[in-house]
Design brief:
CATH architecture of one domain: Roll
Oligomer: single chain
Number of strands: 24
Structural class: alpha/beta
Largest sheet: 8 strands, mixed
Radius of gyration: 26 Å
Number of helices: 18
Shape: globular
Length: about 575
């Protein structure tokens, strides 16, 4: 009995020691990197950065900061460390796919909105979270959605592989799109000041982080007509200690929103050039301005049936939501009427005005925060941030200014500027380690070596875990986008292509690039449609109809893909004879 008691006692001691060990804060040292902070904060070359638990405990030059014993070390020599990126304008209730805004493009006859689109969005939330982390985005601001938004925040809070999330509930609106009206709508029109105040109180009871207003001026209205509703919403919000963000894209509505007390403008002013009065208002009231340039492109490309996708979008966006963009080639014009050329030109002009205003506001010292409006059609959760950076640079902002907008100013939008946004002792350990210098080229922010969120290290190859079907779908998207770099990235270096069952056509990634490079260059209307798909373990069988070849021919084939270690290793084609 004594022996048994002794064994039990030893096991109990081991168990208790394991608990203590797991509860002890993690100790991590990142050494040798250049630490880049936003404007106004100190940066370091050849730095040592110490993390205990989820906090930075010290950062400085390697000659001054030594690594104590007990720390795990990441050798980041020759790399760059920046604060975790923050996308200050997203919407979790939208997927980025073609069917996610029936009020803009009504395709509910093809994909039911509530029964299919919203169900898929909820089912893929953890995938969406992971894609943000994979892109170095450790914090996001959801700018409004249904009341189930609060469930999204709760899930993110309890998910290790997820960004920090702040959000409101439904948009308090001066207009409600009928086609977005559900049992739990993302946008709620208020008709009276009391209705506006009551909607604010309802969101306060649900635990909202802030309030969002959709300040829409419809045809026949003036901006002043809805000002009392906006003012009542903001006044009620301030009673509860809440900041207010406002969608106001006209100069006059933006001025009225700031006059009423708005602290965040969530889009660009694009109807005209901003004036001195507006700039003075923003600076005096320390208003944050979020340009969201990329969302203009996403909608324009979808509406004109000309989706243009970058390599990083194809490889890092959800492949199924992204793949819906190519359905534009299959939907008849009667259900998808093209927009007039005058409307296209007007939308292009809006982008140019928005860029010009962004540069003017940045030069004047207005607080700019990077945001994408991800979730809207063609603007995908995660990688959209990199295109937003490119557009901000086209507007004339420097890489340092853009980084500031996506770190410190993003933290200000979150209301967490005392905890996030720059690398300093005592701050939360949300960081991105980059292989390339983002100050030389802003697109180097996509060249990620590792991501640190809340003190936890995530390596890019360990974040997304694509299934064989995911890999094949990504390959299909790259084919339809005629993007050779993304297409080749889905294949193994020693890829083998067969005519079924065993006739080797060619092998090797270089040969594949050569063949498909010529095809992509010479076939601007190339498109493959999957008629049926079967997945059996590592094998994906697609019955495909391909069109748009230079000769004008079409092809019906069965393609059998074998996927190993996340890459397509073999393909067998069965062609109709």
């Amino acid at each position: 009995m004594k022996q048994i008691n002794r064994i039990v006692g030893c096991l109990l001691l081991i168990f208790l020691m394991a608990l203590v060990s797991s509860a002890a804060p993690k100790k991590l040292a990142i050494v040798g990197a250049h630490v880049i902070n936003p404007d106004g904060k100190k940066s370091y070359r050849n730095a040592t950065l110490l993390i205990e638990g989820n906090r930075i405990v010290r950062v400085g030059p390697a000659r001054k900061v030594r690594v104590p014993s007990g720390f795990s070390v990441i050798d980041a020599s020759g790399k760059w460390v920046i604060p975790g990126l923050i996308d200050a304008h997203i919407h979790f209730f939208q997927s980025g796919g073609l069917y996610t805004r029936p009020d803009i493009i009504d395709l509910r006859k093809y994909v039911p909105y509530e029964e299919k689109e919203l169900v898929d969005i909820k089912k893929n939330l953890r995938d969406t979270f992971a894609r943000y982390i994979r892109c170095g985005i450790t914090g996001v601001v959801d700018m409004g959605g249904p009341f189930w938004n609060f469930e999204v925040r709760a899930e993110a809070d309890t998910t290790l592989l997820a960004p920090r999330v702040v959000l409101p509930g439904p948009l308090v609106s001066t207009y409600q799109p009928e086609k977005l009206t559900t049992n739990d709508p993302p946008i709620i029109k208020v008709h009276t000041e009391e209705e506006a105040r009551e909607l604010v109180r309802k969101q306060v009871a649900a635990g909202t982080d802030f309030i969002k207003i959709w300040y829409i001026v419809r045809r026949g209205q003036k901006p002043e007509d809805n000002y009392p509703l906006v003012k009542a919403t903001i006044d009620e919000s301030h009673k509860h200690g809440l900041r207010v963000a406002v969608h106001a894209t006209q100069l006059q509505t933006a001025k009225l929103a700031v006059k009423a007390g708005a602290k965040i403008l969530v889009h660009s002013v694009y109807d005209r050039e901003v004036d001195r009065e507006f700039i003075r208002m923003l600076k005096k009231n320390k208003v944050l301005y979020i340009p969201t340039l990329v969302v203009f492109e996403g909608y324009l490309e979808a509406l004109t049936k000309r989706p243009r996708l970058s390599t990083v979008e194809i490889l890092l966006a959800n492949p199924y939501f992204l793949g819906t963009l190519f359905d534009v080639y299959e939907i008849p014009d009667s259900d998808f009427p093209p927009i007039p050329e005058t409307s296209v030109q007007a939308r292009l002009q809006r982008i140019e005005i928005a860029k010009k205003n962004l540069k003017k506001l940045q030069d004047a010292g207005v607080l700019i925060a990077a945001g994408t409006d991800a979730g809207n059609i063609g603007t995908f959760h995660g990688p959209a941030i990199f295109r937003e950076f490119e557009l901000m640079q086209e507007a004339g902002l420097t890489p340092k200014q853009i980084l500031t907008s996506a770190t410190l100013n993003g933290a200000r939008v979150m209301g967490m500027e005392n905890e996030l946004g720059f690398i300093e002792k005592g701050k939360l350990a949300d960081l991105v380690i980059l292989n390339s210098n983002p100050l030389e080229k802003i697109t180097n922010t996509a060249d990620i070596y590792a991501v640190v969120k809340d003190g936890h290290v995530f390596w890019p190859e360990d974040i997304l875990h694509p299934t064989p079907e995911d890999v094949v779908q990504t390959q299909l998207n790259a084919y339809n986008a005629r993007n050779l770099e993304a297409f080749a990235a889905t294949y193994a270096e020693d890829i083998q292509i067969y005519n079924f069952p065993d006739e080797l056509r060619y092998s090797g990634i270089d040969r594949l690039k050569e063949r498909y490079g010529r095809l992509f260059q010479n076939a601007p209307n190339l498109h493959a449609q999957i008629k049926k798909r079967i997945v059996l373990g590592d094998y994906v069988l697609d019955r495909e109809h391909a069109s748009g070849f230079p000769s004008g021919r079409t092809a019906d084939v069965v393609a059998i893909y074998q996927v190993k270690n996340g890459k397509i290793s073999k393909v067998w084609f069965i062609r109709k004879k």
